[in-house]
Design a protein that fits this description.
Layout (H helix, E strand, L loop, with lengths): L2 H6 L2 H24 L2 H60 L5 H13 L5 E6 L2 E9 L1 H15 L2 E10 L2 E9 L5
Antiparallel strand pairs: 1-2, 2-4, 3-4
Length: 180
């Protein structure tokens, strides 16, 4: 028999491993026969307990945990889906509405910035506007960004913000769209 044929048939190593497995089985059977009835019952009970513990830890417990956590995960996913649908609707409305004239967009941007008070300063240069912040409240920044996006139809192109105390400091650059 050639060596290639031996490899195809399982090779010499598979025969050796099979013999080792049979020898281990024979040794185990001999030890089992040497055990008394009481020891056999104890070993069988221990093996049953071990098998049930493995079945629980591998098969039942993970599925049970998934079932318990599924409602909370579904609620969180539903909330995310709803938020994404709201954003999609808002985006669709913004795309469908006509752009305001450039001077109106700049006025809306200026008005939104004035509501921020002394924590923010706006400078407009052509179609870009830079808002410089000093300790601005995060909620006020979020409101400003939403108002600028919907009212002036400006979009943020750059933001360099640093958390400073209770608010943010840095700059936010927006582009005012050119009206047709």
């Amino acid at each position: 028999m050639s060596e290639a044929a031996g490899v195809q048939a399982g090779g010499p190593s598979s025969g050796a491993s099979r013999r080792a497995g049979l020898q281990a089985l024979a040794t185990w059977q001999a030890r089992w026969k040497q055990l008394g009835t009481r020891e056999r019952v104890l070993v069988a009970v221990a093996a049953t307990v071990l098998a049930l513990a493995m079945l629980w830890s591998v098969g039942v417990q993970p599925a049970w945990q998934t079932l318990r956590s599924a409602p909370a995960r579904l609620d969180a996913l539903d909330a995310q889906t709803l938020a994404m649908r709201r954003l999609a609707d808002q985006s669709r409305e913004l795309r469908q509405s006509p752009l305001p004239p450039t001077h109106q967009a700049a006025q809306a941007l200026q008005a939104a910035s004035e509501r921020l008070g002394s924590a923010a300063r706006l400078s407009v240069q052509g179609d870009r506007a830079v808002l410089t912040l000093e300790g601005l409240d995060p909620q006020a920044l979020r409101s400003w960004l939403a108002e600028v996006r919907s009212g002036a139809r400006a979009r943020t192109v750059e933001a360099q913000l640093v958390r400073s105390g209770p608010g943010f400091s840095g700059t936010v650059t927006v582009v005012i769209p050119a009206s047709p």
